[in-house]
UniProtKB/TrEMBL annotation:
Belongs to the threonine aldolase family. InterPro entries: ArAA_b-elim_lyase/Thr_aldolase, Low_specificity_L-TA-like, PyrdxlP-dep_Trfase, PyrdxlP-dep_Trfase_major, PyrdxlP-dep_Trfase_small. It comes from Winslowiella arboricola. Homotetramer. One of its GO terms (cellular component) is cytosol. The lineage of its organism: Bacteria, Pseudomonadati, Pseudomonadota, Gammaproteobacteria, Enterobacterales. The modification N6-(pyridoxal phosphate)lysine is found at K197. GO terms for molecular function: L-allo-threonine aldolase activity. This is Low-specificity L-threonine aldolase. Its EC number is 4.1.2.48. PANTHER family: L-THREONINE ALDOLASE, L-THREONINE ALDOLASE-RELATED.
Amino acid sequence: MVDLRSDTVTRPGAAMLAAMMSAETGDDVYGDDPTVNALEAEAARLSGKQAALFLPTGTQANLVALLSHCERGEEYIVGQLAHNYKYEAGGAAVLGSIQPQPILAAADGSLPLDVVASVIKPDDAHFARTKLLSLENTHNGKVLPLAYLQQAWEFTRQHQLALHIDGARIFNAVVELNVTLEEIARYCDTLTICLSKGLGTPVGSLLCGNADYIKRARRWRKMTGGGMRQAGILAAAGLYALEHNVARLQQDHDNARWLAGQLTAIGADVRRQDTNMVFVRLAAEQVQPLQSYLQERGIIISAGPVTRLVTHLDVDRHALEQLVAHWKAFLAG
């Protein structure tokens, strides 16, 4: 099957599985799993932060990040369509009594700083205390410009806010901008990194920040059920991914660019392509028939009025050629 629903569907290859099976392990709750410790140290080094924390999922990493920044009755400013606002079951509000203040993102995925300024609450007992600005990089495939990140960093210093980046696909931004992770991470207090999307591990995310922050986050990880034992088996996949699967993200971006051009050429209504994502508008009467047509031919998509196609390490150019050929045949009736 060719699965273009998301880059979360990637499976570990033989080399990654071998690294996992040969991993040295300990008990991470006691802090003595050497492979977890090595992964956290490498994430801290790459991001230029003092420390990092390995968590089982991106949702928990985002939740722990917010819980470690905000107390009950405080709020974070976030995009209306941001993952840690819209797609994570309201965890910060339910479990942390943290109020989200969502605003609409600009066309480039950034949060307009004049709008952010307008929703910062006065220091008044009537209001939740504004504590944090949360950005997403990439956002629906869009890379936040470095100039914007610097402006956001300076803005949060002026307004006594912390700045967090949900960096689930931050290495896609690293590759697209041709910079190091540290060159992006210098403009935030904390960031998350998802290992199980384009980097191809089976599970896992990282949270990076200063030592005191990560100490708080480690307690929140335990409280929210994220303490793992012989987690080195999973951390080994993360170490392998950071060494071998970052630069190759460029292939995913190139494949997405190629796919957008080919679909446009056969008459599909391609709306945009950013990093490893292609967005195609479908007529209402095409949505279910196209999904069924492709699935019968071994290709899985999540069809909708605007359909997102995500390229990743388990989808090569030959697979995309098959997709284009079948899509063309579908359009021809």
